[in-house]
Design a protein that fits this description.
Blueprint lengths: L10 H18 L15 E5 L5 H7 L7 E6 L15 E5 L14 E7 L11 H10 E12 L5 E4 L7 H9 L11 H7 L3 E9 L5 H23 L4 H16 L3 E4 L1 E8 L8
Parallel strand pairs: 1-2, 1-4, 2-3, 4-5
Antiparallel strand pairs: 5-9, 6-8, 7-9
Protein backbone atom coordinates (compact mmCIF):
# COMPACT_ATOMS: atom_id res chain seq x y z
CA UNK A 1 0.00 0.00 0.00
CA UNK A 2 1.33 3.43 -0.94
CA UNK A 3 2.10 6.08 1.64
CA UNK A 4 -1.11 8.15 1.62
CA UNK A 5 -0.48 9.92 4.90
CA UNK A 6 -2.83 12.90 5.18
CA UNK A 7 -0.35 14.96 7.21
CA UNK A 8 3.21 16.07 6.57
CA UNK A 9 6.67 14.62 7.15
CA UNK A 10 8.80 17.74 7.50
CA UNK A 11 10.58 19.26 10.48
CA UNK A 12 7.52 21.19 11.66
CA UNK A 13 5.47 18.01 11.64
CA UNK A 14 8.23 16.12 13.46
CA UNK A 15 8.22 18.83 16.13
CA UNK A 16 4.45 18.39 16.52
CA UNK A 17 4.85 14.62 16.93
CA UNK A 18 7.56 15.01 19.56
CA UNK A 19 5.62 17.61 21.55
CA UNK A 20 2.49 15.48 21.28
CA UNK A 21 4.38 12.54 22.73
CA UNK A 22 5.35 14.42 25.88
CA UNK A 23 1.81 15.75 26.34
CA UNK A 24 0.43 12.21 26.20
CA UNK A 25 3.09 11.01 28.62
CA UNK A 26 2.28 13.83 31.03
CA UNK A 27 -1.46 13.17 30.81
CA UNK A 28 -1.25 9.38 31.21
CA UNK A 29 1.68 9.29 33.66
CA UNK A 30 3.15 6.31 31.85
CA UNK A 31 4.47 5.11 28.48
CA UNK A 32 3.55 1.45 28.85
CA UNK A 33 0.42 0.45 30.72
CA UNK A 34 0.91 -0.92 34.22
CA UNK A 35 -0.80 -4.04 32.82
CA UNK A 36 2.44 -4.81 30.99
CA UNK A 37 5.38 -6.44 32.70
CA UNK A 38 8.82 -5.94 31.22
CA UNK A 39 10.88 -7.41 34.02
CA UNK A 40 12.31 -10.41 32.18
CA UNK A 41 15.60 -10.10 30.27
CA UNK A 42 15.63 -9.86 26.47
CA UNK A 43 11.99 -8.85 26.12
CA UNK A 44 10.92 -7.24 22.84
CA UNK A 45 8.72 -4.18 22.28
CA UNK A 46 7.40 -2.88 18.93
CA UNK A 47 6.11 0.62 18.20
CA UNK A 48 3.86 0.83 15.12
CA UNK A 49 3.69 4.14 13.28
CA UNK A 50 6.75 5.21 15.21
CA UNK A 51 7.15 8.55 13.37
CA UNK A 52 10.33 10.05 14.81
CA UNK A 53 10.94 7.11 17.15
CA UNK A 54 10.31 9.38 20.14
CA UNK A 55 8.19 6.89 22.10
CA UNK A 56 10.87 4.19 21.91
CA UNK A 57 13.72 6.61 22.60
CA UNK A 58 11.95 7.84 25.72
CA UNK A 59 11.05 4.30 26.79
CA UNK A 60 14.66 3.16 26.39
CA UNK A 61 15.66 5.41 29.30
CA UNK A 62 13.57 3.40 31.77
CA UNK A 63 14.24 -0.17 30.64
CA UNK A 64 17.32 -2.38 30.89
CA UNK A 65 19.51 -2.41 27.77
CA UNK A 66 18.69 -6.08 27.24
CA UNK A 67 15.13 -5.06 26.22
CA UNK A 68 14.93 -4.88 22.43
CA UNK A 69 12.95 -1.89 21.16
CA UNK A 70 11.94 -1.84 17.51
CA UNK A 71 9.92 0.81 15.67
CA UNK A 72 8.21 0.68 12.29
CA UNK A 73 6.74 3.28 9.98
CA UNK A 74 5.90 3.50 6.30
CA UNK A 75 8.59 6.19 6.01
CA UNK A 76 11.99 6.56 7.66
CA UNK A 77 12.18 10.30 6.93
CA UNK A 78 11.70 11.26 10.60
CA UNK A 79 14.25 8.83 12.05
CA UNK A 80 17.49 9.92 13.71
CA UNK A 81 20.70 8.56 12.16
CA UNK A 82 21.09 4.87 12.99
CA UNK A 83 24.54 5.58 14.42
CA UNK A 84 22.99 7.80 17.12
CA UNK A 85 20.38 5.35 18.37
CA UNK A 86 20.81 3.45 21.64
CA UNK A 87 22.23 0.00 21.02
CA UNK A 88 18.90 -1.69 21.84
CA UNK A 89 16.75 0.54 19.57
CA UNK A 90 16.18 -0.28 15.90
CA UNK A 91 13.93 1.61 13.47
CA UNK A 92 12.71 0.02 10.26
CA UNK A 93 10.24 0.48 7.42
CA UNK A 94 7.01 -1.50 7.36
CA UNK A 95 3.49 -0.44 6.39
CA UNK A 96 1.16 -1.97 8.97
CA UNK A 97 -1.56 -2.26 6.32
CA UNK A 98 0.65 -4.89 4.64
CA UNK A 99 1.18 -8.42 5.89
CA UNK A 100 4.08 -8.45 8.36
CA UNK A 101 7.26 -10.24 7.32
CA UNK A 102 7.37 -13.79 8.61
CA UNK A 103 10.45 -12.90 10.65
CA UNK A 104 8.23 -10.68 12.83
CA UNK A 105 5.51 -13.24 13.50
CA UNK A 106 5.09 -13.87 17.23
CA UNK A 107 8.18 -11.78 18.03
CA UNK A 108 7.03 -9.11 20.51
CA UNK A 109 6.00 -9.10 24.16
CA UNK A 110 4.39 -5.67 23.77
CA UNK A 111 3.06 -3.94 20.66
CA UNK A 112 2.27 -0.22 20.96
CA UNK A 113 0.26 1.82 18.47
CA UNK A 114 -0.91 5.42 18.78
CA UNK A 115 -3.04 7.89 16.81
CA UNK A 116 -4.05 6.12 13.62
CA UNK A 117 -7.25 8.15 13.27
CA UNK A 118 -6.18 9.88 10.08
CA UNK A 119 -5.18 6.71 8.23
CA UNK A 120 -7.99 4.27 9.05
CA UNK A 121 -10.69 4.11 6.39
CA UNK A 122 -14.20 2.64 6.44
CA UNK A 123 -14.44 2.97 10.22
CA UNK A 124 -12.59 -0.34 10.51
CA UNK A 125 -9.27 -0.83 12.32
CA UNK A 126 -9.45 -4.63 11.92
CA UNK A 127 -6.77 -4.97 9.19
CA UNK A 128 -4.24 -3.16 11.38
CA UNK A 129 -5.34 -5.06 14.46
CA UNK A 130 -4.89 -8.43 12.75
CA UNK A 131 -1.37 -7.53 11.66
CA UNK A 132 -0.45 -6.30 15.15
CA UNK A 133 -1.69 -9.60 16.58
CA UNK A 134 0.45 -11.54 14.13
CA UNK A 135 3.65 -9.96 15.43
CA UNK A 136 2.60 -10.29 19.09
CA UNK A 137 3.66 -13.31 21.12
CA UNK A 138 0.93 -15.49 22.64
CA UNK A 139 0.20 -13.85 25.99
CA UNK A 140 1.71 -10.55 24.79
CA UNK A 141 0.12 -7.15 25.37
CA UNK A 142 -1.31 -4.83 22.71
CA UNK A 143 -1.63 -1.16 23.73
CA UNK A 144 -3.61 1.14 21.40
CA UNK A 145 -3.98 4.87 22.14
CA UNK A 146 -6.34 7.30 20.41
CA UNK A 147 -8.25 10.51 20.92
CA UNK A 148 -11.98 9.89 21.29
CA UNK A 149 -13.14 12.73 19.07
CA UNK A 150 -16.80 12.16 19.87
CA UNK A 151 -16.13 12.93 23.55
CA UNK A 152 -14.62 16.36 22.83
CA UNK A 153 -16.20 19.31 24.63
CA UNK A 154 -15.61 23.04 24.39
CA UNK A 155 -14.99 24.85 27.66
CA UNK A 156 -14.13 28.45 28.46
CA UNK A 157 -12.29 30.03 31.35
CA UNK A 158 -15.18 32.43 31.89
CA UNK A 159 -18.81 32.49 30.68
CA UNK A 160 -18.34 35.57 28.48
CA UNK A 161 -15.42 34.12 26.48
CA UNK A 162 -16.26 33.61 22.77
CA UNK A 163 -16.45 29.98 21.62
CA UNK A 164 -18.37 29.80 18.33
CA UNK A 165 -15.40 29.01 16.09
CA UNK A 166 -13.87 26.64 18.63
CA UNK A 167 -17.15 24.73 18.64
CA UNK A 168 -17.08 24.62 14.84
CA UNK A 169 -13.62 23.06 14.94
CA UNK A 170 -14.67 20.54 17.58
CA UNK A 171 -17.68 19.52 15.50
CA UNK A 172 -15.66 19.42 12.26
CA UNK A 173 -13.83 16.24 13.26
CA UNK A 174 -16.78 14.44 14.91
CA UNK A 175 -17.37 12.28 11.87
CA UNK A 176 -18.82 8.79 11.63
CA UNK A 177 -15.52 7.40 10.31
CA UNK A 178 -14.06 7.88 13.81
CA UNK A 179 -16.73 5.91 15.68
CA UNK A 180 -14.46 2.88 15.81
CA UNK A 181 -12.39 4.54 18.55
CA UNK A 182 -14.99 4.25 21.31
CA UNK A 183 -15.91 0.72 20.18
CA UNK A 184 -12.26 -0.38 20.18
CA UNK A 185 -12.62 -2.46 23.39
CA UNK A 186 -15.41 -4.47 21.73
CA UNK A 187 -13.29 -4.80 18.57
CA UNK A 188 -10.44 -6.16 20.72
CA UNK A 189 -12.78 -8.77 22.20
CA UNK A 190 -14.15 -9.71 18.79
CA UNK A 191 -10.56 -10.59 17.81
CA UNK A 192 -10.35 -12.82 20.90
CA UNK A 193 -8.06 -10.61 22.97
CA UNK A 194 -8.36 -11.23 26.69
CA UNK A 195 -7.95 -9.05 29.78
CA UNK A 196 -9.20 -6.04 27.80
CA UNK A 197 -9.05 -2.81 29.79
CA UNK A 198 -9.82 0.82 28.95
CA UNK A 199 -8.40 4.04 30.37
CA UNK A 200 -10.10 7.31 29.39
CA UNK A 201 -8.61 10.54 30.66
CA UNK A 202 -8.95 14.26 29.93
CA UNK A 203 -5.87 16.42 29.80
CA UNK A 204 -5.35 18.71 32.75
CA UNK A 205 -6.81 22.15 32.07
CA UNK A 206 -3.41 23.70 32.79
CA UNK A 207 -2.14 21.84 29.70
CA UNK A 208 -5.16 22.52 27.51
CA UNK A 209 -3.61 25.59 25.85
CA UNK A 210 -0.68 23.45 24.67
CA UNK A 211 -3.06 20.79 23.36
CA UNK A 212 -5.02 23.48 21.50
CA UNK A 213 -1.92 25.02 19.95
CA UNK A 214 -0.98 21.55 18.69
CA UNK A 215 -4.48 20.99 17.34
CA UNK A 216 -4.31 24.21 15.34
CA UNK A 217 -0.90 23.25 13.97
CA UNK A 218 -2.44 19.91 13.00
CA UNK A 219 -5.43 21.59 11.32
CA UNK A 220 -3.16 23.73 9.16
CA UNK A 221 -0.98 20.71 8.42
CA UNK A 222 -4.05 18.76 7.26
CA UNK A 223 -5.22 21.70 5.16
CA UNK A 224 -1.87 21.96 3.39
CA UNK A 225 -1.04 18.31 2.90
CA UNK A 226 -4.48 16.86 2.26
CA UNK A 227 -7.19 19.40 1.46
CA UNK A 228 -5.09 21.56 -0.86
CA UNK A 229 -4.18 18.47 -2.87
CA UNK A 230 -7.38 16.41 -2.72
CA UNK A 231 -10.18 18.47 -1.24
CA UNK A 232 -12.73 20.75 -2.89
CA UNK A 233 -11.40 24.10 -4.14
CA UNK A 234 -10.68 26.54 -1.31
CA UNK A 235 -11.35 23.90 1.39
CA UNK A 236 -7.78 24.21 2.66
CA UNK A 237 -8.13 27.99 2.86
CA UNK A 238 -11.37 27.58 4.82
CA UNK A 239 -9.68 25.38 7.43
CA UNK A 240 -6.75 27.80 7.76
CA UNK A 241 -9.20 30.68 8.19
CA UNK A 242 -11.07 28.70 10.86
CA UNK A 243 -7.82 27.89 12.66
CA UNK A 244 -6.94 31.59 12.90
CA UNK A 245 -10.43 32.40 14.22
CA UNK A 246 -10.13 29.63 16.81
CA UNK A 247 -6.73 30.91 17.90
CA UNK A 248 -8.26 34.32 18.61
CA UNK A 249 -10.82 32.61 20.86
CA UNK A 250 -8.16 30.44 22.53
CA UNK A 251 -6.32 33.62 23.51
CA UNK A 252 -9.53 34.73 25.23
CA UNK A 253 -9.98 31.50 27.20
CA UNK A 254 -11.67 28.95 24.94
CA UNK A 255 -10.39 25.40 24.52
CA UNK A 256 -11.41 21.95 23.39
CA UNK A 257 -11.21 19.38 26.16
CA UNK A 258 -9.66 16.21 24.74
CA UNK A 259 -10.33 12.64 25.85
CA UNK A 260 -7.30 10.35 25.64
CA UNK A 261 -8.22 6.67 25.39
CA UNK A 262 -5.89 3.71 26.00
CA UNK A 263 -7.13 0.19 25.25
CA UNK A 264 -5.02 -2.82 26.20
CA UNK A 265 -5.55 -6.52 25.72
CA UNK A 266 -3.61 -9.76 25.66
CA UNK A 267 -3.26 -12.23 22.83
CA UNK A 268 -4.45 -15.64 24.01
CA UNK A 269 -1.84 -18.31 24.53
CA UNK A 270 -2.90 -19.99 21.30
CA UNK A 271 -1.55 -19.41 17.83
CA UNK A 272 -3.42 -16.65 15.96
CA UNK A 273 -1.67 -17.52 12.68
CA UNK A 274 -4.27 -19.97 11.46
Amino acid sequence: MADEYALGRGYAEATRLNCQHYLWKQSLNYLISPDASLTEPNMKVADIGTGTGIWLLDLAKSLPPSTQLEGFDVSSSGYPPEEWLPSNVKLGVWNVFDEPPESLHGRYDVVHIRLFLVVIDDNDPSPILRHCLKILKPGGLLQWEEYDLHARTVVTSRPSAPRENTQRLADFVKRDIHKWVYTLPEIFRSHELTHVSVLRRNEDLSSSRIFMDLELVLAEEFATNSLDAKGPPESGDEVRKLAKAVYAEVQQGATIRHTLQVVTGRKPCADFDK
